[in-house]
Design goal:
35% of the residues lie in helices and 17% in strands. The radius of gyration is 21 Å and the shape is globular. The strands form four sheets. Strands 2-10-9-8-5-3-4 form a seven-stranded mixed beta sheet, with helices on both faces. A three-stranded antiparallel beta sheet has the order 11-12-14, with helices on one face. It contains nine helices and 14 strands. Helix 1 packs across helix 6, helix 2 crosses helix 6 and helix 3 packs parallel to helix 4. The chain is an alpha/beta fold. Bound molecules: pyridoxal-5'-phosphate. Pyridoxal-5'-phosphate binds next to helix 3.
């Protein structure tokens, strides 16, 4: 039976990505060697690394002021690397969920952190708005999509401060104005590639302003100056990322991905709102395009296990909600075809009919 992969991360990748990566594991670029056993400094892999960085630039329209590097350590490494490189005295953070609060905890090791607002009071089910940010903060950190709670910042706040964003679960989901950010970072395993590589987009003139000495590996400058090849990069995830980036370009680029994402999310949220068995958990205006969280509606709470089993019998995989929200979470990243979302919607309808 065809499986429909709704996992939150690592998560679905395009067939194009998986097919081409598998082929390169067998025979990389006609070398007769596996991608797993070639030098990262060989001309074939250097070409992969360069093309992948160039495609990030092209697809996100990255201005000349910014560099693109591929690092290791996941988005979680960026939680410390960002303040290490940028925070001298004070930074402002918006607390919109588990990942945002982990970023806050790390930043506190390096300076004063002003948490400008938090939605913890209602289990992070909404995005705070209308808060004030101190003008003397050195940057303002946001998490654009809250993977666990299914909320997304749809209007990037105007604070006058340089922005830093964790875009791990919505990078490439919609066009962005990179010029507004000092740093954008995103772990690959939600919308790009297998785990192991993190995309970081850095505004060069945001660097060099902190007083502390920085270890080479944790200094963005090192990676920029070495064309993202200071040490051995994660070769296989970068190769897979290149395939996904090519596929995005073939699909018509990021604006085309956004259009499909809006359509996919709409059919699923419409069903959640229509179906009497279910209700969404995120505030309607803040609903994520990528992670759709829903629970059984009040009196139907005991049907949760039964729906999970029914869905899995239809080939639906990975919709169990995160433990901090419960219920279900359907992650519908770029690579998720509309037809799989329709299978889930049909299962929700059929399950409702069975109960009546
Ligand atoms: C998954 C995720 C992370 C953590 O990524 P790692 O690569 O596991 O460190 C951080 N932030 C967001 C928004 C995420 O979705």
């Amino acid at each position: 039976m065809k499986k429909h992969n709704f996992y939150a991360g690592p998560s679905i990748l395009s067939e194009y990505t998986i097919r081409n990566t598998a082929a390169a594991v067998e025979n990389f670029a006609g070398t007769g060697l596996s991608l797993l056993e070639v030098s990262h400094r060989g001309k074939e892999f250097v070409a992969v690394n360069d093309e992948a960085r160039a495609l990030v630039r092209e697809l996100l329209d990255v201005p000349e002021t910014h560099d693109v590097v591929f690092l290791s350590g996941g988005a979680s490494m960026q939680f410390c690397m960002v303040p290490y490189n940028l925070l001298n005295r004070k930074a402002a953070y918006l607390d919109t969920g588990t990942w945002a609060s982990k970023a806050i905890r790390e930043a506190r090791l390096f300076g004063e952190v002003e948490v400008v607002a938090s939605s913890k009071d209602r289990n992070y089910s909404y995005i705070p708005k209308g808060y004030a940010v101190s003008p003397d903060a050195e940057y303002f950190h946001i998490t654009t999509n809250n993977t666990i709670f299914g909320t997304e910042i749809h209007a990037i706040p105007e604070t006058g401060l340089p922005l830093v964003a964790d875009m791990s679960s919505d990078i490439f989901a919609r066009p962005i104005d990179v010029s507004r950010y000092s740093i954008i970072y995103a772990g690959a395993q939600k919308n790009l590639a297998p785990a192991g590589v993190t995309i970081v987009i850095v505004r060069r003139d945001a660097l060099g302003k902190v007083d502390r000495p920085l270890p080479s590996m944790l200094n963005y400058r090192t990676h920029i100056d070495n064309d993202s090849m200071f040490n051995t990069p994660p070769v296989l995830p970068i190769y897979a990322a290149l395939q996904t980036l090519r596929w995005y370009r073939e699909q018509g680029g990021i604006a085309a991905m956004q259009k499909k994402n809006i359509e996919k999310a709409a059919i699923l949220y419409d069903e959640i709102d229509r179906n009497r068995l279910f209700r969404g958990t995120a505030a309607v205006e803040d609903r994520s395009l990528m992670n759709v969280c829903f629970v059984m509606n009040g009196e139907y709470a005991d049907l949760e296990g039964a729906f999970g089993e029914y869905a899995s019998a239809q080939g639906i995989v990975g919709i169990k909600g995160h433990r901090s929200v419960g219920g279900f979470r359907a992650s519908i990243y770029n690579a998720m075809p509309r037809s799989s979302v329709e299978v889930l919607v049909d299962a929700m309808k059929a399950f409702e009919n069975k109960q009546l």
